[in-house]
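User: My advisor asked me to double-check a structure prediction for Ribosome biogenesis GTPase YqeH before group meeting. I don't want to rely on an old file, so could you generate it fresh from this sequence?
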Amino acid sequence: MTLPTGGDDIKKCSGCGIQLQSAAQDKPGYLPEKAWDRDPVICQRCFRIKNYNEASSVAVDQDEFLRLLGQIGGKNALVIHIVDLFDFEGSLISGLQRFVGNNPVILAVNKTDLLPKVTNWNKVLNWVQKQCKEHGLRTEDIVLCSAKKNQGFERLLETVAHYRGDRDVYVVGATNVGKSSLINRLIRDYSDLDQELTVSRYPGTTLDMVNIPLDDGRYIIDTPGIVYPWRYSELVSREDLGTVMPENPLKPMVYQLNEGQTLFFGGFGRFDFLQGEHQSFTCFISGRLGIHRTKLERADSLFAEHAGELLSPPTKERLEELPEWTRHEIRIPKGARQDVFISGLGWIKINGEQGALVAVHVPKGIKVLSRPSLI
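Assistant: Sure, here is a fresh prediction for Ribosome biogenesis GTPase YqeH from the sequence you gave:
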């Protein structure tokens, strides 16, 4: 079935008002072709909320997302901003403050289960607070949590109850940060949804948002996930996504390097130790992604000859679908405790305090930066 393209034939979801389409399941307004002739007709996301008390994730691009965010400043709202601790700088919504106005923001830092069990969580919380200040984000509270392990959610729900008052709750976040898991928990704890719910019970707001009724007459507003193109999770194929995004706690890999040595992270990235005294570097990346050490002088030829084979994933075919690599040179000052962060791939902690000059090679567009060490 082809989609209506204009005029009176355009169909909109009776639940949220979005124009319906059957081409992309992960985009707003998706409706399977077999359900096209139902009456009333609702998109898959609204269908899942109505029948299963469960939200599913959809995504929009940056411009569309910013247009949606622009509405929140004029509302009486509590904003829950969900970020991925593994990809903190990559999933943080920069400039959120200017969109939400004076509305309170709770930062839910998800995927804490990925950090080693010996992690000092007070230090992590302090680190997050400093990063928020650095990015100009004011928060009423910060909650560390794990949707996968159901950890920290009671604390998050208590925080929401404390700040909500008579406000609607807007949930915002990038794709793949666990937004749906949080919304589903909010539905279970705050909403009076049941199997008898009719579509008219949750009026749509159009513009790709879904209003989910709460038991006090207010709403949870489920916003689409924002697609940030600088994250590996948006760049790699579906086949490689499970390799790049860790599912189990990270096992830090420590490498003692002399200057002039290189680490390859499968065929997805490369870390060069260009200059500095012998020192150790700790890699925090998915355990499914192999690390290969070589000499810097051999790195270019090794990649040219073995990318997609010895240096994999991705395969040669999928490697050709990625942008060409670009080089990022970073100088770590003496005495600094720094990470070299690669959005969606992980980070490399520089353990020595004598300083270093390093370079990172990744596909063009991937965010690379240095930051104070998380751990």
